[in-house]
Design brief:
There is one protein chain. With 160 residues, the chain is mostly helical. It is built from five helices and two strands. The protein is 51% helix and 2% strand. It has a two-stranded antiparallel ribbon with strand order 1-2. Strand 1 (84-85) and strand 2 (88-89) form a beta hairpin. The radius of gyration is 18 Å and the shape is globular.
């Protein structure tokens, strides 16, 4: 019988929302932690850094599109015409997904070198390959979420 211990998440109220630029929505770290089932292995500080980096990166990628939306008179992302699901704009949901995927990719990369990798019989290489695939999957989901926010195709194909 084996036992795997995981760190408990921080106490409720210990992680305030990360304020955004006013046009894009703030990100609730406690909700993010719950939604992506993140335990306390990622510290409060590391999660704050990852969320801020995600917001900076995703906002920069959406800067031109957001400027077009502002010029069209939309004062925040939630005002951009879009279907509603559960009373919420899908644009806001897609934006949050982009942030969540970025955070998951960043944390997976940050923790991929932990000493908990198994040793012997090539296990280390197999686990590392699985982690690499996980990071790539998160990055693909991030690309799709950014495309979804902009109502663009998820596929980019070029002839060589």
């Amino acid at each position: 019988m084996s036992f795997v211990a995981t760190a408990n998440p921080p106490a409720r109220g210990a992680e305030p929302a990360v304020a955004n630029d006013g046009w894009f929505p703030d990100i609730e770290r406690e909700q993010l932690r719950k939604d992506i089932r993140l335990d306390g292995t990622a510290t409060v500080e590391r999660l704050a850094i990852a969320v801020e980096a995600a917001m900076a990166s995703v906002n920069a990628e959406l800067q031109e599109w957001a400027a077009e939306q502002r010029a069209a008179g939309h004062t925040k992302l939630a005002d951009v015409p879009a279907p509603q699901v559960g009373g919420k704009s899908i644009k806001v949901m897609q934006y949050r997904n982009a942030i969540y995927w970025y955070v998951q990719a960043a944390l997976a990369e940050a923790y991929r070198d932990m000493d908990k990798l198994p040793q012997g019989d090539g296990k280390n290489a197999r686990v590392q390959a699985a982690l690499d695939g996980r990071v790539e999957g998160f990055q693909q989901q991030l690309r799709w979420a950014i495309a979804d926010v902009q109502s663009r195709s998820r596929v980019i194909a070029a002839l060589l």
